[in-house]
Amino acid sequence: MADIGTSAINKGFEHKWVILAAVMLGTFMTPLDGSIVNTVLPSITTFFNTDISIAQWVPTVYLLTISCLILLYGRLGDMHGYKRVFLYGLAAFTVTSVLCGFSQSMWMLIAFRALQGLAAGMVMAVGLAIVTAAFPPTERGKAIGIYAISIAVALGLGPTLGGIIAEHLSWRYVFFINVPIGIAALLWGSRVIPRGITNPGQRLDWYGALTALIFLLSLLLYANRGADWGWLSPVPLSLLAVALLSGAAFIWIERRSTQPMLNLALFSNRVFSFASLSALLSFMSLYAVIFLTPFYLMFVLHYSILTVGLIMAASPIVTLFVAPLSGAVSDRIGTRGLAFGGMCICTLGLFLMSSLDASATGFDVAWRLTICGLGMGMFQSPNNSAIMGSVPVFHLGIASGILAAMRNVGMVLGIAVAGAVLYNMAPIAASGQPGSFTSAEIGEFMSGLHWAYISGAVITGAAALTTLASVSWRRQA
After folding, report:
1. N or C, fewer C-beta in 10 Å, the chain?
2. Residue 476, domain member (yes or no)
3. Which of 381, 356, 358 has the alpha carbon at shortest distance from 369?
4. Helix, strand, or coil here: 173?
5. Domain shared by 386 and 255, yes or no
6. Distances, alpha carbon 58 to alpha carbons 14, 99, 222, in Å
7. What band does 427 get if pLDDT is binned at 50, 70 and 90?
């Protein structure tokens, strides 16, 4: 087991809490942006008079571009220092947020969201590495649990804040809100985050980076658009073939490189491999809920965007309180039981979501989301602690990048799976507008929604099983 407590990273850990706070502020923006945009997506769809299937690209392209380069950013952090990558990402994210806010068409917004994702990937790739390096192993779970507060607060605040902004101002301000936060985080982070370890003798594995980019991009495009294009039509089959070939080439290159972008030996560690897979599956199910539920609340229950935001805040608010406690407890009793229990609770929450109907109330939705939030809060901190504690200190950046990649690839796949199930079961969902459904179409939509939630529950159940296979019952040293 790796010992991350090295004075070369942070002498004596004396500034650990200040460093944690600075990273939390910078990291706060990326989930805030995601949760706000998901909440106002129906409003954006109506504003540009477009279909849901096109609007789906607004959150999807953001996650795609994050996922495709996040491994590269992690490797750059290991080579040149996490601080530099983190601060460059903050600056770029702030600028691209302004561009998104000034978008004049849906496709322009999608393009700027792609650029925003490139910037967000830099922040997300190394944030957890900075936190892990700043704390001794005996406090790792607690630190990661507190770090999760910034994500939970952003996810909890985002829906409500997005609803208020969209109702009283304009959806454009959900992007402009990032500007003051980004400037503050950039100034503070530049002062308190340590430079960390750099490896000037290292070189970047450009061939590995390129093949990884091609693999992830083609695979995620196939997963996301295959249902619309037809799974066996020429374009999706070509994307799948490119993904398989580039994936094989990536593994071949990394096995033979003296300085690989991704050290494949990390995956020989059972803890690292299965915990990373659990993270992927958990975020697939989570984003099925985050993507689908606002449309249900607006299209079927006819709630205002502000009410949608308040209801959607139920899950992350619970996670806000549970994640730090779960992380601290995992330092004492180990991670496996908490992570497994969390995924079981989340599975129950998704099954309960599948029982919603057209006569449900906002409270009916909120308490089900609360159960999902409880499960995710129990799971995330122990699972993340297991991943980051299983790698050597000089691989913290790439481990953080892999974890972030699993999270974001899971989000993309979750939207793709949920959308594919919904559109196949309820074709009307792909082109509906708020308030336009007839009674028969609402019934069709609810049938598709039911099976989409069921698919999420199955995925979460699989995550519970992989969690059992990953981590020792004992406290990690």
Report:
1. C
2. no
3. 356
4. helix
5. no
6. 42, 14, 17
7. low
State the average pLDDT over residues 15-30.
85
- Whether residues 425 and 305 share a domain: the answer is yes
Q: What angle do CA 41, 126, 135 make, to 5 degrees?
A: 120
Which among 324, 14, 336 is positioned nearest to 140, based on CA atoms? 324
Q: What angle do CA 216, 221, 224 make, to 5 degrees?
A: 120
Query: Based on the domain organization, do 452 and 439 belong to the same domain?
Result: yes
Least confident of 124-128, 289-293, 393-397, 427-431: 427-431
Asked if residues 160 and 313 have their Cβ atoms less than 8 Å apart, the reply is: yes
Question: What total of structural domains would you count in the chain?
Answer: 2
Say yes or no: 400 and 363 in one domain: yes
Give percent of the chain with pLDDT exceeding 70: 88
Which amino acid would we find at residue 278?
A: S
373 and 441 inside one domain: yes
347, containing H or E segment = helix 336-353
Looking at residues 438-457, what average pLDDT do you find? 82
At 426 the pLDDT is: 66
Tokens at residue 53, please? 């299937």
Which of these, 308, 338, 306, 307, lies nearest to 323 by C-alpha position? 338
Mean pLDDT, the chain, rounded, equals 80
- Answer yes or no: is 2 within a domain: no
Token pair listed for 218: 């083609």
At 12 the pLDDT is 44
Can you read off the two tokens belonging to residue 427?
């074709």
Domain at 361, CATH number: 1.20.1250.20
Q: Are residues 96 and 209 in the same domain?
A: no
49 Cβ partners below 8 Å, 6+ apart? none
pLDDT tens digit sequence for 111-134? 999 999 899 888 888 887 888 878
Residue 154, C-beta contacts closer than 8 angstroms, at least 6 positions apart: 28, 29, 30, 31, 32, 35, 316
User: 169 with 156, same domain?
Assistant: yes
pTM: 0.74
Q: Of 260, 289, 307, which residue is a domain's last?
A: 260
Using CA atoms, how far apart are residues 257 and 378, in angstroms rounded to an integer? Answer: 39
Phi, psi of 245 (to 5 degrees): -65, -45
Q: Is residue 477 part of a domain?
A: no
Q: Name the residue range of residue 327's domain.
A: 14-204+261-468
Instruction: Check whether residue 255 and residue 279 sit in a common domain.
Output: no
Nearest 5°: CA angle at 89, between 13 and 54? 135
Give CA–CA dist 392/173, Å, rounded: 42
Distance CA 124, CA 151 (A): 11
